[in-house]
């Protein structure tokens, strides 16, 4: 390689592509017969341009040899698994039942507002039927992986309709899946959108501080879930869903 080093313009080219004779010929002699020098310069320039273009367009990450630290996350909104954000599991003492059998529970503030909303709907002939509320990470584990296996689904496909364990809003105790008690066939189906219960919720849920988590074309890329509502009526719930997540509020 020492010989090649004498000619700086040649030195930066992929050496293998340049015939030995040309590499060793002095530039002055070469220019007399054929403008090899210019040709090589043009080649080097093209390579440099391509290289610069590549550096500018590739993702901004340090090579592993330079930085072995875990890569800093550019924005907390990017901290997700298949579009789902991480959530803490509510403590049992924070939960209150929303069904007579005590099986379904929400955080106290959300439970209170859900029951008030259900009562107001009932007064207008609408039955808001809770289907699922607080879930432990272990329950979500079952829901995600057991059904994924049962349905022979790939993780990416499963995540379009279910959050991976640790990444469900149901862990927080603020999220509730709601059905129309008079139309159970539409439970957990996009068809729920066409029920009187959904229409009532669209009109009235905000009054009780419930909002759709996954409206059509939501920023998380999760499938539209007209049945899945979350409580955002106090500081803790607001922080849970909006603090430092840089996600725009649902557009309704
Ligand atoms: Zn849900």
Question: How would you describe this protein?
Answer:
The chain has helices spanning 8-11, 20-24, 27-33, 36-57, 108-123, 137-150, 155-161, 196-204, 235-242; strands at 95-97, 105-107, 128-132, 175-180, 210-212, 228-231. By secondary structure, it is an alpha+beta fold. The chain has two domains: 4-57, no CATH class; 78-242, 2-Layer Sandwich (Muramoyl-pentapeptide Carboxypeptidase, domain 2). A four-stranded antiparallel sheet has the order 3-4-6-5. A two-stranded antiparallel sheet has the order 1-2. A hairpin with a 7-residue loop joins strand 1 (95-97) and strand 2. The chain is globular, with a radius of gyration of 30 Å. The N and C termini lie far apart (67 Å). It binds zinc ion (ZN). Zinc ion binds at residues 132, 170, 175, 177, 228.
From the structure above, extract its key features.
about 250 residues, alpha+beta, Muramoyl-pentapeptide Carboxypeptidase, domain 2, 2 domains, two-stranded antiparallel sheet, globular, disordered N terminus, binds zinc ion
Average of pLDDT: 79
Termini separation comes to 67 Å
Strand content: 5-15%
Shape: globular
SSE string: HHHHEEHEHHEHEEH
**Rg from Cα:** 30 Å
Q: State the domain count.
A: 2
SSE-based structural type: alpha+beta
Unreliable residue runs:
1-32, 53-67
Helical amount among residues, as a percent range? 25-40%
**Order of adjacent strands in the largest pleated sheet:** 3-4-6-5
Bound molecules: zinc ion
Question: What is the CATH level 1 assignment of the largest domain?
Answer: Alpha Beta
Biggest sheet statistics: 4 strands, antiparallel
CATH architecture of the largest domain: 2-Layer Sandwich
Q: What's the total helix number?
A: 9
> How many strand segments?
6
- In the CATH hierarchy, the third-tier topology of the largest domain is known as Muramoyl-pentapeptide Carboxypeptidase, domain 2
């Amino acid at each position: 390689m020492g010989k090649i080093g004498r000619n700086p313009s040649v030195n930066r080219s992929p050496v293998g592509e340049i015939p030995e004779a040309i590499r060793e010929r002095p530039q002055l002699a070469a220019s007399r017969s054929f403008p090899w020098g210019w040709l090589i310069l043009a080649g080097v320039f093209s390579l440099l341009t391509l290289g610069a273009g590549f550096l500018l367009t590739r993702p901004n990450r340090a090579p592993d040899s330079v930085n072995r630290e875990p890569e800093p996350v550019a924005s907390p909104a990017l901290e997700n698994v298949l579009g789902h954000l991480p959530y803490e599991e509510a403590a049992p003492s924070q939960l209150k039942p929303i069904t007579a059998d005590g099986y379904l529970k929400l955080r106290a503030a959300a439970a209170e507002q859900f029951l008030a909303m259900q009562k107001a709907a009932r007064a207008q002939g609408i039955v808001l039927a809770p289907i699922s509320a607080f879930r432990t990470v272990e329950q979500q584990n079952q829901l995600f992986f057991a059904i994924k296996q049962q349905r022979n689904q790939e993780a990416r496909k499963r995540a379009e309709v279910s959050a991976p364990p640790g990444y469900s809003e149901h862990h927080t105790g603020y999220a509730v899946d709601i059905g129309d008690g008079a139309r159970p066939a539409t439970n957990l189906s996009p068809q729920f959108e066409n029920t009187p219960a959904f229409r009532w919720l669209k009109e009235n849920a905000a009054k009780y501080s419930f909002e759709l988590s996954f409206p059509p074309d939501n920023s998380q890329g999760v499938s539209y879930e007209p049945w899945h509502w979350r409580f955002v009526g106090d500081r803790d719930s607001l922080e849970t869903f909006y603090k430092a997540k840089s996600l725009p509020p649902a557009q309704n």
